[in-house]
Design goal:
alpha/beta; Rossmann fold; Nucleotidyltransferase, domain 5; 3 domains; six-stranded mixed beta sheet; 27 strands; 36% helix; globular
Length: 556
């Protein structure tokens, strides 16, 4: 038995999966001020009468990190940058930062030493501001950690008890602004996420659930909960990732589909190309910041079944805010859910109260309740169609899409619109009709996200850079460095090293059994020539365990 729990904007959904069957489902309202309570409430409802000793795996999809950032509840962070020459940190939109002199070049050679007095002065400034969390990020320090390590050591001496996050330990990928943003967000969320993870583990133990617990990441892969505390921002956008994995689980394999996940508060849009979810080449965007968090190319639109419907003269607006549940479910304001009930497209809630909601709206618009309901549904569909068409333009700029277009010899169009989430059964057919596409609303669509979390397998990426002239390698994902002795290393030997390092990293993260499934998704070699001789080679390789489903889900 597998358990999946998804914390959505309006409801927290949970499922028990046995093999390829959904055995039981549960729903509780989401309390954004106490997500742990929601998770455990759904869990308690789900396992009532179930032998928890048979549970083999629990996977959570949570909005904790997303909400912390969106609501400004993250811990304040002092950002210390070592940008080197040629860049202006003020252009990065990272907020206030402390700038240190010193520089490392792209191959990791120190070209300008640090000034210890500057670092001590930075510690003094941070102490005066009362900050206890610090992010230290140097340009190209993933190739040579010395500047970040030294700055961190001096800052720690001047700031006893401070939590100091070093950029090369968060991400070793190129692109200094994204690495700085990712490190800053890690420092801002780590302590609260660590407490959340500890509380979840403790609560599960109290319920006699001894199965391993995982968290769903933004790229649709799972990671053991205890290992995720070092990389909390990996869990941002795990909700949209859960909807994509749910669609993969509930539809035929190998299809190309637009995913439309309609919840109470938001609608998430995503794309699956020939059975493979489209990844964002730029990483997850958090507010205005681009990060190194590997994530699906998704978009959240502030419109859903519980969106507030208002009128101004003869015009009608839906969303972006939610004032509570629909009137048909005890709320006080008209919503699209009320409109769907009046039009006979839904059987949710009290029909008389839904009629009352549309009468209120119709009075303001100067029309009947039925006409007000139709105007509301038309406005929702029009907004969703417009957002999907806009997303097509964004998706087409992704390198992975361009490769798919060449390989498949076809132009992307909305062939299938797959709807999941509570609002999908009545709305997705209307959206698909407007787009000239086939509508697919699979069985268990309302709990697809929880199913997707339950049956998602781990993902892992390893980016390896080798400089044989220097005799060094570095792994971007964890700031790991090592030595190589063969200046004439072959591509086959470089791949062998990458696979060994990925296997070791997978073991450290508790997902070693999946390392054999890693694929080489990028490989480049560059010979370094001096005079008439080859003095070394530069290798860049990427190995990935791609998003997918546990084999048991497809059996039977």
């Amino acid at each position: 038995m597998l358990i999946g729990i998804d914390v959505g904007g309006t409801t927290t959904d949970a499922v028990i999966v046995d093999g390829n069957r959904v055995v039981k489902t549960a729903y509780v309202p989401t309390d954004h001020d106490n997500l742990l309570k929601c998770l455990l409430g759904a869990l308690d409802e789900l396992v009532a009468g179930v032998d928890t000793a048979k549970v083999e795996r629990v996977v959570l999809s949570t909005t904790l990190i997303t909400n912390m950032i969106a609501e400004g509840k993250t811990d304040p962070v002092a950002l210390v940058l070592i940008p080197g020459p040629g860049t202006n940190p003020k252009d990065y939109n990272l907020g206030e930062s402390i700038i240190l002199d010193g520089a490392v070049d792209f191959r990791g050679k120190e070209i300008d030493p640090l000034r210890e007095n500057q670092i001590k002065e930075a510690a003094s400034q941070i102490r005066e501001k009362g900050l206890s969390r610090v992010a230290v990020v140097g340009k190209f320090c993933q190739r040579n950690h010395s500047h970040e390590l030294k700055a961190g050591e001096i800052l720690a001496a001047g700031l006893p008890g401070a939590h100091i996050e070093l950029g090369h330990k968060v991400s070793g990928q190129l692109n200094f602004p994204r690495r700085a943003a990712t490190t800053m967000l890690t420092a801002a969320t780590k302590d609260k996420y660590q407490k959340f993870a500890a509380d979840v583990a403790s609560a599960l133990a109290e319920r006699k659930i001894k199965a391993p617990v995982y968290i769903l990441k933004a790229d649709g892969g799972t990671l053991p909960l205890d290992r995720s505390v070092g990389m909390p921002v990996e869990t941002i956008f795990s909700g949209p990732a859960a909807s994509i994995m749910g669609v993969l689980a509930l539809t035929e394999p190998g299809q190309t589909s637009v995913v439309v996940d309609i919840g109470g508060t938001t609608t998430d849009l995503a794309l699956i190309l020939s059975g493979q979810p489209l990844l964002s080449s730029k990483g997850a965007r958090v507010d205005s910041l681009l990060t190194h968090v590997r994530a699906f190319a998704v978009k959240s639109v502030a419109i859903g079944g519980d969106s507030a419907v208002a009128f101004n003269g003869s015009s009608l607006t839906v969303g972006p805010h939610r004032d509570g549940p629909p009137m048909c479910l005890g709320g006080g304001m008209p919503t699209p859910t009320d409109a769907l009930r009046v039009l006979g497209l839904s059987s949710i809630g009290d029909g008389a109260k839904a009629e009352q909601a549309m009468q209120i709206l119709g009075k303001g618009l100067g029309c009947s309740a039925a006409e007000a309901a139709q105007k509301t549904v038309d406005a929702v569909v029009e907004r969703m169609v417009s957002e999907i068409e806009e997303m097509f333009r964004e998706w087409e700029s992704e390198p992975a899409y361009r490769i798919w277009e060449i390989m498949s010899k076809e132009k992307l169009s909305a062939q299938n619109v797959v709807g999941v989430g509570g609002g999908s059964p009545p709305l997705v057919p209307l959206v698909a009709k407007r787009l000239g596409a086939a509508a697919v609303v699979p069985e268990h669509a309302p709990v697809a996200n929880a199913i997707g979390a339950a049956v998602a397998r781990p993902t892992l990426t390893l980016n390896l850079h080798i400089d044989t002239e220097k005799g060094e390698y570095d792994v971007a994902e964890e700031g790991l460095t090592g030595r190589v002795s063969d200046r004439k290393m072959s591509s086959e030997e470089a791949e062998k090293l990458a696979r060994r390092l990925l296997s070791e990293r997978a073991e450290r993260l508790g997902i070693g059994e999946y390392s054999g499934e890693a694929e080489v998704t990028y490989s480049e070699v560059f010979n370094m020539i001096r005079g008439w001789s080859t003095v070394g080679r530069l290798f860049d390789l990427r190995l990935e365990i791609l998003a997918g489903l546990l084999p048991a889900w497809r059996r039977g």
